[in-house]
Amino acid sequence: MSSGEDVVLHRGGCHCGAVRFEVWAPRRLRVVECNCSICYIKKNDHFIVPKSRFKLLKGEEHLTIYTFNTGKAQHTFCKVCGVQSFYTPRSNQDGYGVNPRSLDDGTVEGIDWETFDGQNWEKTFATSDIRLRSKE
């Protein structure tokens, strides 16, 4: 974590509680709303953190992964309740995309929303800073 960054420890999990995690992220989250085929249909809004800022606390045995197309995005979800609390995005293989709705109440001060045109993924990725969000 950089010294000037205002980060806090957020905790969260899936709907049934079988999967729990913690993540160090800003109090005010920068959340991506993507319109690619899967994010749009699942309403997979997410903020991105480096893998080092994320820790699975319990439930690894309850997780399963769905991939498609390039196979790079690892859509991780709970086998019990079906909720995707986090995943490995195609854009950030060295990080996690975390669903802000899966966080426990009390640590998020606000959300800044931004769009990512996933229907034109390559073009949007080439002009976006999204790849930098999983860097230390």
UniProtKB/TrEMBL annotation:
**Keyword vocabulary terms for this entry:** Metal-binding, Zinc
Gene Ontology molecular function: any one: metal ion binding
Domain CENP-V/GFA residues, every copy: 10-122
Record bears the keyword Zinc: yes
Q: What PANTHER family is this protein classified in?
A: CENP-V_GFA DOMAIN-CONTAINING PROTEIN (PTHR28620:SF1), CENTROMERE PROTEIN V (PTHR28620)
> Which family would the database say this protein is a member of?
Belongs to the Gfa family.
What this protein is called in its record is CENP-V/GFA domain-containing protein
